[in-house]
Amino acid sequence: MKQFFFLGVFLLFLSACGGNRPVVEEEVYLFSYFKGNGEDGLHLAYSEDGLTWQTLKGDSSFLTPMVGKDKLMRDPSIVQDDKGVFHMVWTSGWWDQGIGYASSDDLVNWSEQRNIPVMEMYEGTRNSWAPELFYDKSDKTFYIFWASTVPGMFPEIATSESEKGLNHRQFYVTTKDFQTFSETKVFFNPDFSVIDGAVLEKDGTYYLFVKNENSNPPEKNIRVVTNRKPYDFPTTVSDPITGDYWAEGASPLQVGEYIYVYFDKYTQRKYGAVRSKDGVSWEDVSDQILFPEGTRHGTAFTVKKSIWQNLL
Q1: Beta bridge partners of 148
Q2: What is the per-residue pLDDT across 37-90, written as a single tens digit (0 to 9) for each?
Q3: CA 305 to chain centre
Q4: Domains in the chain, ordered, with CATH?
Q5: Number of other residues whose CB lies within 10 A of the CB of residue 199
Q6: Which residues of 243-263 are buried (b: 16+ CB within 10 A; e: fewer)?
Q7: Is it true that the peptide bond before 155 is cis, omega within 30 degrees of 0?
Q8: What is the 3-state secondary structure (H, E, C) of 193-206?
Q9: What is d(CA 107, CA 194) in angstroms, rounded to the nearest whole number?
Q10: Contacts of 50 (CB under 8 A, 6+ apart)
C-alpha cells in the first residue's frame, strides 16, 4: 500500500509540474514589407489571425538600406533558422547584379548590411529582383532565388514597349552560413517571363508560387506548381490562382488548416489574398483582409510571441 501511496504522490507532483513537458510558446504572424520606392527600408506588421494586419513601430522603418546602386530595400524576405537567427535578403536597386543581406536576433538590431553579388558571373545581367529566402529544415540549407533578365540566354518573348527586352527567369544559390554560396544556377525556367518566386512546405509537399510576368499580351497573375523537394520544380504550372486583376509578390503562409497567399494588387495600390486547404482549389478572400496602407511586396512568417512583444 505504501508503494501505491508514494506512486500517487509522485504522479501528483509531476502533474503539478506539467509532467516536465516543455512549454510551447504561442506564435504570432509577422509581415515584412516596403513602402514607396523602398528608400526608407524595412517595415513590419503583425497579425494574430492572418486576416487583420497592424503596423509595428508606428509604421516607421526598422532598418535603413545602405547597399546597392540605388540604396533601396524593396521586397524584403525574412526567414528564421533553427538557432533563432533571422536572415533577410532584399532588392537593393533596380538594375543591380547583386542583392542585399543582413541578419538579426530580434528584428530590431541588425548586422552590417552586405551585398551578395549573385549575378556577376552572367555578363550583361540587367537586374536582380525580389530575392526570396526559403530555409529547408531537413538539411539546414538556405535557398535564395530571384528574377533576372540575361539578354540572349532564353528564347525571346513578345513584350510591351514599357517592358521592352525584359525576359526574366528565376535563378538561385544555396548556403548554410551566408559566407559561402553555391554557384548561381537557373531555378525555374517555364515558357514565360517569371518573377516573384516564393516557396512554402506543407506535409512534405513544396509549393512554388510565381508571377507570370508576360506583358504582350499581359498576364500579370500568380500560378503554383508543386514538388517533393525545394528545387527542380516541374515547369508546367497551374492556371492563375488570382482573379481578374494584376497581382505580384506572392507571400505564402500556413494559418491553421489553410495555405494563405497574400499578394500586391499593385495597380490598385492595395493587398489581396487567396487561400486553400488542399493547394488545388483557391478561394479569393481579398475582401476579408486588412493591411496597413501603402504595404508593398513583402513576406509573411511566424515568430514566437516573445519576439512580437519585444517589437511592441
Answers
A1: 169
A2: 999 999 999 999 999 999 999 999 999 999 999 999 999 999 999 999 999 999
A3: 20
A4: 25-311 (2.115.10.20)
A5: 22
A6: eebbbbbbbbbbeeebbbbbb
A7: no
A8: CEEEEEEEEECCEE
A9: 30
A10: 29, 253, 255, 256, 258, 260
